[in-house]
Amino acid sequence: FEKYKGYTINQGYFLPPLFFTKEEAHALIMLQTLAAKFTDQSISVQSNSALDKIKAILRTPDKEKAEALASRVNVFIPEGERSDENYLSDIQKAITDKIILQITYIDSRSIRTKREIEPFGLIFYTNQWHLIGWCYSRKDYRDFKVKNIVALDVSMKPFQKKHQFTIEDYMKIF
User: Fold this and answer.
1) Residue of 51, 60, 137, 75 lying closest to 102 (CA atoms)
2) pLDDT at 82 (0 to 100)
3) Is the pTM value of this prediction over 0.85?
4) Is the dihedral of CA 125, 131, 134, 139 positive or negative?
5) DSSP code of 125?
6) Sign of CA dihedral 49, 50, 54, 57
7) What count of other Cβ atoms lies within 10 Å of the Cβ of residue 147?
8) Helix (H) or strand (E) segment spanning residue 86
9) By C-alpha distance, which of 173, 169, 79, 88 is closest to 122?
10) Distance CA 165, CA 174 (A)
């Protein structure tokens, strides 16, 4: 890697170009449309950026078709059903880096609490995102509605617990 220039490969090596079929590009447009509506701004910005990079490498006729499709596909969500918070990207990072989160959460009884959690996974059900995590104050796994998180800080402290099951297992057990 050369700073400000990018990656180079040694002479004699070949790196095939990255190509997408128009069908693959169209599938990604559909996925990005869903991401823009069913995630938050932190994810939508990243998916838009990725899609722009994909469109940039399409051949001109395919790029034009992709743009036409993008202008004719949408998902409508009623006002007030989308969260204004932008926590999904931080939650994803904490899950993959196994970093403890500190959240301020409003529970089902409208009680505001501060929690320290190990985020285990994200699940979209009941038309909203849920963060599944080990809660230190409750000493158990908990399901937190992301829209009820009013503050979130990434602690940079590593997980202390070993999570031995998958998110699918969690949904079956709890």
Assistant:
1) 137
2) 64
3) no
4) negative
5) E
6) positive
7) 17
8) none
9) 88
10) 12
Q: What is the pLDDT, as a whole number, of residue 170?
A: 84
Q: Give how far the C-alpha of residue 78 lies from the chain's centroid of Cα atoms, to the nearest Å.
A: 21
CA dist 143 and 141 (Å) reads 7
pLDDT value of position 117: 97
Query: Does the pLDDT of residue 11 top 60, yes or no?
Result: yes
Residue linked to tokens 């790029």: 63
C-alpha dihedral sign at 94, 99, 104, 106: positive
Amino acid 142: pLDDT = 94
For the purposes of burial, counting CB atoms within 10 Å of the CB of 38, is it exposed (0-12), middle (13-18) or buried (19 or more)? middle
Residue 157's CB: how many other CB atoms inside 10 A?
13
CB 132 within 8 A of CB 167: yes
pLDDT band at 119 (very low <50, low <70, confident <90, very high): very high
- pLDDT value, residue 6: 66
Length of the chain (residues): 174
Run of H or E including 158: strand 149-158
Residue 23 CA to residue 50 CA, distance in Å, equals 16
